[in-house]
Design a protein that fits this description.
single chain; 167 residues; two-stranded antiparallel ribbon; two-stranded antiparallel sheet; 43% helix; Type IV secretion protein Rhs
């Protein structure tokens, strides 16, 4: 089932809309597997979804992993609370007065790289349906969940995922 010549037996790769699991993570039915493998499966299924939405997953993945290797970053890490500052929006009141409101411009799922998008979707599942942040990468837990109200965090994940699915 390997896609790459020296594919790690603990990984699944999804370069073209199909999953290629290594021998240690292959399952006849991922729904019956342990939660850590389910998290990995959901991450990879996000790449299937990206491919179906028109993303060139193989090319995007290659670029992301080459760049992260060269600059020492981890493409799986993200900040769900990331914003793009504020913007002034003019609105009409019921009395036809114009008022200015300052709104925070939140990031969208599409603002993250493809690996972070897949990780956000898998982490959303871990938090919402398993209520188990231990399934997240430690750095993502520390950045996004630690010392925050879990239900508020889940709502933010859900907002980003639902917004992306609607498009």
């Amino acid at each position: 089932m390997d896609y790459l010549i020296h594919q790690d037996k603990n990984t699944i790769v999804t370069p073209n809309g199909s999953l290629y699991p290594g021998q240690d993570v292959y399952s006849e039915n991922y729904a019956l597997d342990r939660d850590g493998i389910k998290h990995l499966f959901i991450h990879e299924m996000a790449h299937v979804w990206q491919s179906q939405k028109g993303m060139w997953v193989r090319l995007s993945g290659a670029k992301i992993h080459i760049c992260s290797y060269l600059d020492g970053t981890n493409p799986y890490l993200y900040n769900i609370h990331q914003t793009f500052g504020t913007r002034v929006v003019k609105m009409q009141t019921a009395q036809s007065k114009t008022v200015s409101n300052i709104i925070t411009v939140k990031s969208k799922l599409s603002d993250y790289n493809m690996e972070a998008q897949a990780e956000i979707i898998a982490d959303y599942w871990a938090l919402k349906f398993k209520r188990n942040p231990d399934l997240m990468k430690t750095k993502n837990f520390e950045t996004n969940v630690r010392a925050r109200n879990l239900d508020d965090v889940i709502r933010l994940y859900e907002y980003k995922v639902r917004e992306a699915i609607r498009l």
